[in-house]
Records
---
Amino acid sequence: MNSTAPSELNNDAFLLTQLEQGNGHAFNLLFEKYWEVAYSSAYKRLKDADLAKDIVQDIFTHIWINRSTLHFNNLPAYLNRAVRNKVIKALAKQKATHPFFDVLENHSEKAFCADNLLLWKEFIKDYENLLSTLPPQRQAIFRLRFHDDLPTKDIAYLLGLSRKTVQNQLGKAIQKLRVSLMHLWTIFALLLLSHLR
């Protein structure tokens, strides 16, 4: 690309074509041009600088490794979708603690008898297993609403979704989990009552 005109170096279509052919310089130019935008988008949603950097690095690594097969024409749009999907997955994997766990987590294991510890472990395991059955986006929304106590408008802003979409996803999650969660709440109630005796 030594003889390439400066205007072509700013042309995404040209750079993407060069990238598909394995041109590392073209990749570096695209990386420098869009890294900050992608990072800002990830950080805005996560408020975690290190995680945002890791996400963007993973995306660009994926682009380079799969450069000959991606065939996209709009890099900003691709990056926006990729960041959004990565953020949703990252949020879904976070082990945020629901406020109702605080009563038990603030006490040492010695405060519980062996039977209660087994119930507690079963409760946590079943609860996480239930959440893992939800699609990544729905799981992230559920955790943000019921673990982090965020209102739906904040969740919508964080994930780049409409508030109606967030509300719909919450409704579907709750509908699916309602019966199973009732079983878990029974276990939790037994734990709580036993601890308060």
---
Amino acid sequence: MDPELTLILRLPQAEDYQALSGWIPDAAAALRWAGPLVRWPFSAEMLPTLLVAPGAHSRVLAIADDHTPLGFGQYWPRDDGAVHLGRLITAPGLRRQGHGRTLVQRLMAEARQATGAGRVTLRVYRDNAAAMALYAALGFSAMPEHSDDQVLFMQHLPT
């Protein structure tokens, strides 16, 4: 990641949804990213409505100076007192530059502060080695009892 960039986590704007819609190339990618309720193809104008979920908060990781979106994610409180991260994605052309790490770290911090939750959870497809390695490096651990053959459920406990 360029040390000269100042990154911010902010509310999504219309142009962010335009960029985001271009990051999802097909129906399989849409299903993996957003689940079965967000059907592909979708337009950028549809995304704000499609991504609404009870208690969910959407955020964009962006370059402060020009607001270029680098990543997107959501968080929402769980019934067990944890907060869950979901729909995490970074811009395809900007992957492996540290933006995913920054997105998850900042989203976790905001989610914990906003909800008062200590424990953070997420799900990751087992064949997504890069994401699994990132989450493990950030201190997430597997919860096999909540996982299946395709998806690993992970948690991050407060330090």
---
Amino acid sequence: MVSPEVLKRFPLCAGLDEGALRQLAAIAEEVSFPRGTLIFAEGEPAHTFYLLLDGWVDILVNMDASGDRREPVTILSPGDLFGWSALVEPYVYTASARCASPVSAVRVRRDDLRRLLETDPELCCTIITRVCQVIVSRLRATRAQMVRLLVTG
């Protein structure tokens, strides 16, 4: 369990009422990873999402079929959400996450969050809407990177 005060730092939780924050805090836990740790790999079953407390996380995509060569597409900083694939079917990570520094994060398991959201439709709508906003933001950034590569390449 983490403190509801910790969750208030994240855009995902901004403006949630105290009851919702307490419920989320009860299913969340703080975790730490050393620099270089691969938190999850593209193509693996997605069962957990994370809120980055401290440090930097590289989001990488596979550049070959075996997944031996991964390249960064974005760098996440404190306040960011990652592992959103755990909340969206087919629940498979669409990229890898590797610690670019020592990392502290809040971990939430999909099954625990799902049980909570099934009991609170308003909270469900808020969380899913905010996760969708993150997905859209990352898609736009990826599109802009592709355009730059095509124009300059």
---
Amino acid sequence: MSSDLSVAQVLANLEKQLAFHRQQEAHHAEREVFHREQRVVHASEVENVSKHYEAFKATAEGAAKIAARTATAPPKPEAPTPPVRVEPKRPHILVARLVAELPAGETLTASKVAAEVHRRYRSELKKPISSPTASTCLRRQAAYGSVRLVKKGTAHIQAVYTKV
């Protein structure tokens, strides 16, 4: 030990050490209170979580037993049925069907019939029927007696028919 220190220096040194250790004691006392409070909080959380854990575990085990007991093989997938292919109908059949469905007394022109056949029976046609084709079908319907000619047509004016 060095004896070159004066009494004043020794006292100052001891005071510094004393202050440091008091500060550390106070700090650790605060930490002790903080840690004690945190310990209480975490202890209550451990109790709460463990209670829910045990309840969930018991339920999950019971559900797993039930699921294992009633497990069956999944049903075999059914073979997909091929789409029903609609055979395209000839235009005169569709015009006759349309005329049969319309109320008596309704007036018909070739363009109206062509549009209505296309609207109602689109899936049964390969392509939309034209007004000249519908006109021919109506003319034949008139010859068979299911429609009657009301007004004769010309090259630029459509003939008008009505259902009998």
